[in-house]
Amino acid sequence: MSAREHEIEERVPSPDELAAMAYVDGEMGAKERAAFEGRLEKESALVREVAAQQRLAVMARAAAPREPIDEEWKRIEGSAVHRMGLPIGWTLLTVGGIGLSVWCAWLIASSSIGILPKLLTAALAAGFLFLFLLAVHARITSRPFDPYDDVKR
Amino acid sequence: MILVTTDSIPGREIERVIGLVRGNSVRGAPAQADFHAWLENLVGGEIPEYTKLLAECREQALDRIIADARARGGDAIVGLKITSSEIANGAAEFLAYGTAVKLRA
Fold first, then answer.
1. B2-28+57-103 is a CATH 3.40.50.1820 domain
2. Phi, psi angle pair for B75, to nearest 5°
3. Are A58 and B63 in contact (CB under 8 A)?
4. The CA-based dihedral angle spanning residues B56, B59, B64, B65, taken in that order and rounded to the nearest 10 degrees
5. Secondary structure of residue A2 in the 3-state scheme
6. In terms of DSSP bridges, do strands B91-103 and B14-28 run parallel, antiparallel, or are they unpaired?
7. How much is the average pLDDT of A41-66?
8. With a threshold of 0.90, does the pTM exceed it?
9. Quick count: other Cβ atoms within 10 Å of Cβ A152?
10. Rg of the Cα trace of chain B?
11. pLDDT tens, B72-96?
12. When comparing pLDDT for A14 and A3, which is higher?
């Protein structure tokens, strides 16, 4: 047994971890559950613990048996062509997209159309970007609490 | 929590019917996965991004129906059904519904 395995085996779950497990597994009575949910409203660390236990529960339930093609996907993803091709492809796509957007913005800005359409176009682009960034921020913030990210199939 | 698609659970007796329980989920894939899936769709074969998206959505809908049944004091869900629809392009929606029951101990 390695030191790490020994450490895992020896580790005793904390009372909060045990409570989170019981909560996720539906083993709490109504009164105990209500008290625990009251704590969840105030303790963000406990919310994280519940999310971690829920992630484990979902993984255990949704663990899919390995298929022969899984090995092939792993081999393809590990190949040099794939490892180099993906970043190159995405970089070219991103540079092209940003470049084209900037060029379009410059075309509009330097065109002879009035100032109002220019401002409206700028507001449209800025609004879209702002809302997109808000959506990205919300996703990044909520991701640690989303136990379904690890589900494969 | 026992989940079955049948109307009864062999070997267990239903003490009382609690009622309809349901759980739904709508999830989308990130634009990058959508774009990659679109490319994969051009050449055919499995699209792992969408297999994953549907599986995530299914598990979340199941968790929600289980939570609903638990909150109403159920031990099991009988007649479980899962239905899907497309609410937005590239998003998956699953609705799980069934009847929560209390089993005799």
1. no
2. -105, -25
3. yes
4. 140
5. coil
6. antiparallel
7. 88
8. no
9. 14
10. 17
11. 999 999 999 999 987 777 788 999 9
12. A14
- B57 contacts in A (CB within 8 Å)? 148
Give how far Cα B16 sits from Cα of A21, B75, B76, B81, Å: 28, 10, 11, 20
Decide: A57 and A24 in contact? Cβ < 8 Å: yes
Beta carbons of A151 and B63 less than 8 Å apart = no
- Is the CB of B59 less than 8 angstroms away from the CB of A152? no
Is the Cβ of B86 closer than 8 Å to some Cβ of chain A?
A: no
* A41 pLDDT more than 90: yes
Domain boundary assignment for chain B: 2-28+57-103
> Per CB distance under 8 Å, which residues of A are interface residues toward B?
26, 54, 58, 61-62, 64, 69, 73, 90, 148-149, 151-153
Specify burial of residue B60 (Cβ count, 10 A radius: 0-12, 13-18, 19+): buried
Q: Does B32 touch chain A (CB under 8 A)?
A: yes
Instruction: Report the distance separating Cα A63 and Cα A131, nearest Å.
Output: 36
> Taking the CB of residue B7, how many other CB atoms lie within 10 A of it?
11
The per-residue pLDDT for range A107-139, each reduced to its tens digit, is 999 999 899 999 999 999 999 999 999 999 999
* pLDDT range class, residue A5, cuts 50, 70, 90: low
pLDDT in tens, B37-69: 999 899 998 898 899 999 999 999 999 999 999
